Amino acid sequence: MEPVSITVTGFLANDPREFSTDRGPGVSLWLQVPVSDDRSRYLKVTGWGTLATHVAASLHKNDRVTVRGSDFRVEQWTAGDADKSPRACLAVTAWDIAPSLLRDTAVMGRTARGTEPGTAGTGGEHAALPAAEQADLKVLAGVTAGA
Question: Is the domain of 104 the same as that of 122?
Answer without folding.
Answer: no
